[in-house]
Design a protein that fits this description.
alpha/beta; seven-stranded mixed beta sheet; elongated
Length: 740
Amino acid sequence: MTKPPRKKHKKTKHGKILGANSGERPQLQERKRIAASVFYAANPAPPDLLSHMAYDGLVPQQIYDDIWKILNNPIHIPIGYTFFVDFVEKSGASSLDEQGRKEYARIFVPHWPSILVLHQAFDKINQGLSFGEAATWLISQPPFQNRKSMTAAALRNVWLKVYKRKVDNFETDSEIGMRLNLLRERSDALKPKDSVQKKAFELRKQRRAAANKITRLESKLRELNNPAPAPAPKKGAKKNTPLNNVDTPSDNTVTPSDNTATPKRTKSAPKEIIFEPNPGPQTEFLAAPEREVLYGGAAGGGKSYGLLADPMRYFGHKQFNGLILRRTNDELRELVWKSQEVYPRAYQGAKWQEKKSQWVFPSGARLWMTYLEREEDVLRYQGQAFSYIGFDELTQHATPFSWNYMRSRLRTTAPDLPIYMRATSNPGGPGHQWVKRMFIDPAPPNKAFPATDIDTGKVLAYPESHARSGRPLFYRRFIPATLRDNPYLYEEGSYEANLLSLPEMQKRQLLEGDWAIAEGAAFKEFRPSLHVIAPFEIPHTWRRFRSCDFGYSSYSAVHWYAIDPAYETLYVYRELYVGQHTAKELARTILQAEDGENISYGVLDSSCWHNRGQIGPSIAEEMISMGCRWRPSDRTNGARVAGRNRLHELLKVDDTTDAPKILFFNTCRQIIADLPVIPTDPKGTDDIDPRFASDHSYDSIRYGIMSRPRGSSPFDDWAGDGAKTGARASWVPASIRFGY
């Protein structure tokens, strides 16, 4: 007995219809039943949607052995997606089933927004709307906007498949009754009434067939005269990004870190990987969700390619309008050359318009690559809107004006198109200081933080009258990179040799990506990688003290220290940097911060004891009256120079311990930001530049290290036996005025 012929699966524009054919062998039907049950269990939805609809999102073909691994291990299925399997016989398959048949497996991903909009179109058709009008309405809806066209015939075929049973039975009392009656009326009107009409009908039919044949022949003739380099791909898998309705643009594969493009693997045509991010910083940069990100550090870290690849995920969105800036057109030239190597290969049909200095993509997306040399050049972009703005070499801009102004040009009306500002830069340059204050100083590298005002340090937040009162406006992040993060350039070796030959300061900036170095810096020994550490729990037996530089109209800086008794190493473990605080308010804040800690003593700017002609209490007396005890710092002639020399000694690496004698917790952001940029006196003295205004944290540190701190003190005997347990006896200073 011969087996019945196997029915072929009918295809739609979106893929295959779920359901087993009656002519298939039982084993194949059982596999389909299992796969469909998995799909039903994960997607509670009306059965008619599941059993009749055509699904969007055809994923690359693989043999069914790999598919069963996915079905047997659901943990491998990406969150938010549900797969079901349809097996079709195909010649050239690489595996055989039990009966020697060659099979392929196709995985489909349902796209429910498209399904629901398609059903809305069917409702309009059922109410009398023509298929052509319904197709026009359909491509105006968000899930189908990226389709260049949809024919009425294609929509009619899908509609007939969905309502096939009702059409075959001519169920005029169902929801498609109006459409069936309309079709019958139109059919009766077009039916020939006599022999003349029948002859005319046959001739029109032959004319249409001849026209279709001519069209096909002309298309083949054009293909022979203009051979294409590669066939256009079918619609690929949906991207796991907010832009899940953007098609993969070409046969070539772009693979950024956040899976915004899925490679299509076929047996006949292996795909070329045009760009793949290096593991580490470049991958983190492409996946960063923060509004503003700086990708900076050493030269050769892959920053330029990262900036070119970052917006590529949105080139399939017709509303995307991006902007990449350099300070001058000459500096932009190399970036344009690199883009010409990548963009046309990733997006077939992408065109570079030299006069307009912009890329135009088949979807309608645009990327403008131009200059911003002077601050008044921002007026070129006034009134324009961009969803993506990138600055290459941000530190070439001397002030933050351009960056802040261009933020006002960042907007979009598309809900599936996010807005981002991205920048790349090496340390150094005219804008080194403001870029450092904006991205480097507020938080450790690779850690997102709320955007702050670079002048006041306050978090940029919504006002009290806003519905989001108190929340940060947006977040920033700094992602450092070094030459080692670019294996292609690092392994070659010659570029590293060039950087090693540079002078010390330039070598630290371009090879090590060190932001803690500036022209004329007074403390060149300071390096965050060496002097900044993560916080740890300080033993209660370690001696602690504090120092303070008071200011009301400017800032007050307070630092807390712990002394390692084994090596006499100073650990600056806490920092308080506030403005507009009176003496009593500052004392109250200090006592709250150190509540429960055993503070041995405090050193305060000795000018706080000066009365300057008034007879009321001094600043120091008011703080001491609150229980915040201090002793005066050294303000004699030469104290500033001696303090700087002492800090130099502590910052040096000790030959015995191979570590410096002073370390800072990474939570002390202000002193970490100030130390690398404190300038030396241009007159050639051993002091720092007296014009340097932000010296409050430095002065506080100088008072602390000049107080002769020791890990143990003869005064510890005041507590008797209690000193061994870290307890302190009650103690009253000999002079309330001086606090000791």
